[in-house]
Here is the input.
Amino acid sequence: MNKNVRKAIIAGNWKMNMTPSEAKKLIAELIPAVEGKNGCEIVLCVPFVDIPAAVEAVQGTSLKIGAQNVHFEKSGAFTGEISAAMLKECGVEYVVIGHSERRQYFGETDETVNLRMKAALAAGLKPIVCVGELLSQRDRGITNETVSAQTKIAFLDVSAEDAVKVTVAYEPVWAIGTGRTATAEQAEEVCAVIRSVLAEKYGNDVAEAVTVQYGGSMKPSNAAELLAKYDVDGGLIGGASLKAADFAAIVDAAQ
Ligand code: PGA
Here is the structure.
């Protein structure tokens, strides 16, 4: 992390877990556990239906609420979808875009990731855009190429002014929910590649200002080592964000 030039962000991705009442309970446990830990921004990316309860529960604290997806059209005949303006009006600040589970199970492509990015930014939401290689791509030695292409397409037609509002989460798909973490060196290498793609497009000042997270089996026991790396500015945390003590321990590691 380099907190002199960019914000460290620890974000929980609850995925399809927690009913509204469970969300309230978890947040009530979490608040005293992370109170006063201002060395990083803390974001909870919750299921859509938990948003009102979560926004209410974090009122008066520095915790922020995020969603896990957003549709790219403003409104219309898109049954089951949620627009950026809807999220914004509910008090959402961040939104995860292009998570590998959305790419894998719900037909998300680099192109729709780019459309969602632009829709989120236009509505004043801060995207957390996910990139990452499959195990087969790592094994073939095309990790950097894969992640570079995903990053380039995600940022197509995004201005420099908007680019600094985006967080990029490097999530190697083989490390998500598997207990298998990328080594700190592997995470650093790819996070640096992402930053170099941004530098090429926007110049160094913008690239240095963008928060790049690591995600994939981040937990209390490995967080400090990952976050010690220069280009790893935080984490996107799945499993370990569902337990207040574990998530708070990762927040501690980011102080
Ligand atoms: P995990 O999930 O921490 O459970 O591996 C991370 C993510 O998918 O964002």
The mean pLDDT is 97. DSSP finds twelve helices and eight strands in the chain.
